[in-house]
Every structure is written in structure tokens, then in C-alpha cells.
Design a protein that fits this description.
- The protein is an all-alpha fold.
- It has a single domain, classed as Orthogonal Bundle (Ammonium transporter fold).
- Helices cover 63% and strands 1% of the residues.
- Helix 1 runs antiparallel to helix 2 and helix 1 runs parallel beside helix 3.
- It is globular and about 65 Å long.
């Protein structure tokens, strides 16, 4: 993603590139409600609306913060390789309509709105780890603090001119470190502070609607083309097209890898596995897709599909309650995709950097390690600290009775499904734990 990836300077606005990037921005925006559907189908009936709202509220909070100061912090003039600042961008009040993003043929407004959609999506990813048990007010405050203290500076590290990862030469085409590792590490930090759901490893916590999960996964896959291909900020030299192709290739390969592991390990091909495999492939190719060939993308996808499928079972072994596998998919997938750049980079894509398998040695691999573990450590520690402060002050968790009865009713005074007019039940029954449909995929995962 620019400005870490630079093209020859141009002086004229390109209507084609501008239109392309506006479409890509809209596609990335779609990913947040798509994520809401994906997560919303994976929880029990009594938590559906809360899961949808935990994603949706990010569209409001982060949008306002981005206008006020977030864009300036992420992409303003560098200070100490840690954060940016540009007072002219505060409130977006001193940006000309046709003022171009430096070195590109698109307006600053187009670049900033594209980046805004990334900033919105990233905290929403964290929410899947916290399903069923977090106060909505505490979550909203956490988003505001986390975006300010974690996401905006990390985006500057990775993509802002002068950021330490930028200067080191870490390759992250569209967000393996800044988005997925950042969100996955944050999720782990928060759940270690707030603890497990009531009944974790004892009660069945099956997805209530696998069709919703598949719908969300399909919309995420669709939106991800804007997320990835758009990160080249133009369409002039074929690199964006390479990223588009590799996004499709790696995702398909990851679906096959996850399902193959699932069949061998559990004896069935599940729809939840197919959807989760697709997301793991999308995550892994995000940092790598501009640097690898389509054959390399197959390798990245298969590795991500298999290893992420294995990783989701670690929560049962180690006892951390990652409700919807944010750690297993986004953290692990982001790490894999980022590190595999050091092996599969061909030197014929976004840059001339070559990985180990193409004669480049391990130099790029060590740079990737620095980016991966620098972001992971910072996000994990700071996110845990933020959660701890909120937990000890306003409280992060809903009361146990509300969690058991249903967080939707307690926090939003609504239920996802009203059967009172159907003659087969009442609105009250939709909030009971036993109302969820059985899902073999989840029962297999509980035994992992």
C-alpha cells in the first residue's frame, strides 16, 4: 500500500485511477457489514444483534476520529519514526479538491477515504474474540482508545513515509501487519484480561446460522478485491492486477487446504470450515500478494488453510476463550502471510526484492520478522493494558445473569428473530441458549 510502494511521480489527476479507487473504497467499506454477518452467524441466537452492532459501531466512531486527527497521525509528517502529524489535515479542512496524493494520480481525499475503510475494519475484527460478554459502552470506548493509541501509529509505522517498518523495508502490501496481526494480537490481549465466557468448554456454543456465515464470507471475499488490488493506488502497470489474481488463487487454495485438514482430522467437510478457510487465505495473501507469483499464492493459501485450521484448536488446549477464532485466523494467518514473503517473493512484482526460494537469501525474511513481532508485541501489550484499565474502572463485562440470559436483550433491548407471530414460539424463546441450530463443525472444534 502506498506510500510504502511508490510509483513514478505524476502531475495530472487520472479520472480512471480516481474512479477505480473510489470503487475500491466502497468495496472495503462493504467488508465491515460483511464481517458483521460472518461473525453474527457464528454466535448463538441470543448474541446475534450484539455481534452485528460491535462491527457496525466502528463505522461511526472511527470515521469521526479519522477526520478529526486519525489521518494526520497515520500519514502526516513523521515524528521519530513512530507517528505522523500534519496540522493542515486536522478536520480535513485544508485539503484542496484536486490536490494529489504525493507521487500518484489520485486526490488526497480519495487516498484518505480508502485508508479510512481500513481503519474502520481493523477494530471490528477484534470483536469476534469477545462475543457474548462485553458491555457495548465499554466496547465503543475501547474502539476509540485503541484506534488512537494502536491503529493510527501502527499504520504510520508500516505505510507512512518515515515509519520505522517503512524505512526498514518491511513488505506489507495491504495489511498483514497493520490490520490482521494488529487485530489478532489485540484480541488475544483483551481476552486474557476479561476472561472466558460462562460455560466455555462445557456448554455447546454452536453457530446459530451457517447460511449467514457463508453470506458474510462471500461478501468478505468480494470486498477483499478492493482491499487488496486497490492498495496499489492505481491501475497503470499490472501490479494491482497481479494482486487481484493472487487474492483469488490463494483464497481458493486455502479453502481446499482447510477442508482437507478437516476431513482428515474430523471426518467431514463443513461449511464453517470452508468459510473459515476462505478468510484464512484472504488474510495470508494480503501482505504477500504483490510480491509472489500465482504459484506462490497457491503455496501461501494452502499453508494458511492448513495451519490456521490447526491453530483454532489451540484455545481449547491453552484455555483462552477466543470466541470466533480471531487469533487462530487473523493473527496466525497474518504472521504466515507476512513471513512467507521472505521465501516466495519473486522480485518481479511490486519490487525487485527476492525471497529465499528465488535467490534472495534470508535478508527479507528477517525484515519481515521485525515487522511481524514489533507490531504483535506492541498491540498485544497496549491492548491488554487498555482492557485492564477499562475492566477495572467502568467494567468490560456484562453481569453473568445477562450473559446467560442473552446479551442482545440486556444491551440492546432487542432480539434477532421474533417468532411470536409464527405460532411456534415467542420472542422470549429466541434468547435461550438452546435455540441455536446444531452445527457439526463447531462440535468438532470443541473436541480439537
Amino acid at each position: 500500500m502506498a506510500p510504502a510502494i511508490t510509483l513514478a511521480a505524476e502531475t495530472e489527476l487520472s479520472a480512471a485511477n480516481t474512479g477505480f479507487m473510489l470503487i475500491c473504497s466502497a468495496l472495503v467499506m462493504l467488508m465491515t457489514p460483511a464481517l458483521a454477518f460472518f461473525y453474527g452467524g457464528m454466535v448463538r441466537v441470543k448474541s446475534t444483534l450484539n455481534m452485528l452492532m460491535m462491527s457496525f459501531i466502528s463505522l461511526g466512531i472511527v470515521t469521526v476520529l479519522w477526520v478529526l486527527y486519525g489521518f494526520s497521525m497515520a500519514f502526516g509528517t513523521d515524528t521519530g519514526s513512530i507517528v505522523g502529524w500534519n496540522s493542515d489535515w486536522v478536520g480535513l479542512s485544508n485539503i484542496g479538491l484536486t490536490e494529489l496524493w504525493d507521487g500518484y494520480t489520485i486526490p488526497v481525499f480519495v487516498f484518505l477515504v480508502f485508508q479510512l475503510m481500513f481503519a474502520v475494519l481493523t477494530p471490528a475484527l477484534i470483536s469476534g474474540a469477545l462475543a457474548d460478554r462485553v458491555k457495548f459502552t465499554a466496547w465503543a470506548l475501547f474502539i476509540a482508545l485503541w484506534a488512537t493509541i494502536v491503529y493510527f501509529p501502527v499504520a504510520h509505522w508500516v505505510w507512512g513515509a518515515g515509519g520505522w517498518a517503512f524505512e526498514l523495508g518491511v513488505i506489507d502490501f495491504a495489511g498483514g501487519t497493520a490490520v490482521h496481526i494488529n487485530a489478532g494480537a489485540a484480541a488475544l490481549g483483551v481476552i486474557l484480561v476479561i476472561g472466558k465466557r460462562v460455560g466455555f468448554k462445557k456448554d455447546p456454543m454452536r453457530p446459530h446460522s451457517l447460511p449467514l456465515v457463508m453470506l458474510g464470507a462471500g461478501l468478505l471475499w468480494f470486498g477483499w478485491f478492493g482491499f487488496n488490488a486497490g492498495s496499489w493506488l492505481g491501475n497503470d502497470d499490472g501490479v494491482g492486477a497481479l494482486m487481484f489474481v493472487n487474492t483469488q488463487v490463494a483464497t481458493g487454495a486455502a479453502v481446499l487446504g482447510w477442508l482437507a485438514y478437516e476431513k482428515i482430522r474430523h471426518g467431514a467437510f463443513t461449511t464453517l470450515g470452508a468459510a473459515s478457510g476462505a478468510v484464512s487465505g484472504l488474510v495470508a495473501i494480503t501482505p504477500a500478494g504483490g510480491a509472489v507469483s500465482p504459484l506462490g499464492a497457491i503455496a501461501v493459501g494452502v499453508v494458511a488453510g492448513v495451519l490456521c485450521a490447526m491453530a483454532v484448536g489451540l484455545k481449547y488446549r491453552f484455555g483462552y476463550d477466543d470466541s470466533l477464532d480471531v487469533v487462530g485466523v487473523h493473527l496466525v494467518g497474518g504472521i504466515l502471510g507476512s513471513l512467507l514473503v521472505g521465501f516466495f517473493a519473486t522480485g518481479k512484482g511490486q519490487s525487485d526484492v527476492e525471497g529465499l526460494f528465488y535467490g534472495g537469501g534470508l535478508d527479507q525474511f528477517w525484515k519481515q520478522c521485525a515487522g511481524v513481532f514489533g507490531v504483535l508485541a506492541y498491540s498485544l501489550i497496549v491492548s491488554a493494558a487498555l482492557a485492564f484499565v477499562l475492566h477495572k474502572t467502568i467494567g468490560m463485562r456484562v453481569p453473568e445473569d445477562d450473559e446467560v440470559a442473552g446479551i442482545d436483550q440486556a444491551e440492546h433491548a432487542e432480539t434477532a428473530y421474533d417468532f411470536s407471530g409464527a405460532g411456534g414460539g415467542s420472542a422470549r424463546t429466541t434468547a435461550t441458549p438452546g435455540a441455536s441450530a446444531a452445527a457439526p463443525a463447531e462440535s468438532k472444534k470443541v473436541d480439537a
